[in-house]
Amino acid sequence: MLAGSGWAAGVAGEAGEGQARPRLAYLVSDLRIPFWDILWRGIRSRAEGLGYRVQVYSANNGAKRELEHAVKVIRGGVDGIIVSPTNSSACATILKFARQGGIPVVIADVGTDGGAFVSYISSDNRDGAYRIGKVLTRRMHALGWGDGRVGIIAIPQTRENGRARTAGFMEALDEAGIRGAGIRQQVDFSYQETYPELFIKKGAPRSTN
pTM, whole model, 2 decimals? Predict the structure, then answer.
């Protein structure tokens, strides 16, 4: 990831024979979530291939712990930081501290509410959610459920990518003339949180197909 910024290649080129390898820190919101674990494995593989040492620091979905990790690695003098933050506001704080320490930062997903960084790597969250919404609304109309409503269980809207996903999905609903039925934001991203009985509405239409 850092190689794409042009910064990594320069640092790697300066580390000659016998010199210590440059160090990277990956600050991630919660390594227990499979998506972040997969991303970490990719970061580690690429970083090691470029001659870097890299250490991961999981916040276990806690912004306070994430900030503690950031302060630790900045004081420890890492050469670069990759961050997948707990939320976009927290990311802005990390960027502020990293800039004060003269450490470059790459953001890997989620996004930031502000601050200076080398690169932001993400998917097109708004378009992806819009496309999912189009698939859902076409199916609803095909089943004769055009008068139905759609509830949204979303990642936190304090995340830039969360806001983008919601906006794209709502755009698809609006175009199809289907109403929303409110939004519930995830907190711990667990199965139990996503599928509670609260969201199971008695008498809701169900497909037999």
Answer: 0.74
